[in-house]
Amino acid sequence: MVIEVQESVASRFFPIFIFFLPSMVNFVLLQETLDTITDIELVVNLKLREDVLIMKCLGRRVCSGCGTNYNVAEIDVATEDGGRIFMPPLLPPPACASKMTIRADDTEEVVRARMDVYAQEVRCREISNV
């Protein structure tokens, strides 16, 4: 349904589209869906250190009451070039704090497996589109 709304609005008002997509999505399904909406001219793949990505994935929480997503991971790590990666947690309000749940598939093993699939799919797309 969201895709239909985006297609309708996009085709009438916006000559250029920018899609921000969640990490580790199914690229084949994504490409097929976006191809029905618009011609893709450029894809930018933002990269993040693996350890930081794992921390963020393992910090995901969902309020069982309202369904809102939060992230309890507090990231503050040094980079090799002397900088730092800082991402504060996205904490729930007091009304949701006691209702936080973790998805059953948000384990380090599952996150690493998703990352492997993502890396393989992105690598294939990068090579085929050069």
Q: What do you see in this structure?
A:
- This protein is an alpha+beta fold.
- It has two domains: 1-44, no CATH class; 48-130, P-loop containing nucleotide triphosphate hydrolases (Rossmann fold).
- The chain is built from five helices and five strands, in the order H-H-H-E-E-E-E-H-E-H.
- It has helices at residues 2-13, 27-35, 50-58, 94-97, 108-128, and strands spanning 60-63, 69-71, 75-78, 84-87, 100-101.
- The chain has a three-stranded antiparallel sheet with strand order 2-1-5.
- Strand 3 (75-78) and strand 4 form a beta hairpin.
In short:
This protein is α+β, with helices and mostly antiparallel strands.
Quick one: how many beta strands?
5
Largest sheet: 3 strands, antiparallel
Number of helices, counting only DSSP H or I runs of 4 residues or more: 5
**Could you say what the CATH architecture of the largest domain is?**
3-Layer(aba) Sandwich
- What is the helix content? 40-55%
H/E topology pattern = HHHEEEEHEH
Q: Quickly count the domains.
A: 2
Uncertain stretches of 5 or more adjacent residues:
1-6
Mean pLDDT: 78
State the separation between the terminal residues, measured CA to CA. 33 Å
Oligomer: single chain
CATH homologous superfamily of the largest domain - what is it? P-loop containing nucleotide triphosphate hydrolases
Judged by helices, strands and strand pairing, the structural class is alpha+beta
Q: Write down the CATH topology of the largest domain.
A: Rossmann fold
* Bulk shape: globular
Residue share in β-strands = 5-15%
Lateral arrangement of strands in the main beta sheet: 2-1-5
Q: What is the CATH C-level name of the largest domain?
A: Alpha Beta
Rounded radius of gyration (Å)? 18 Å
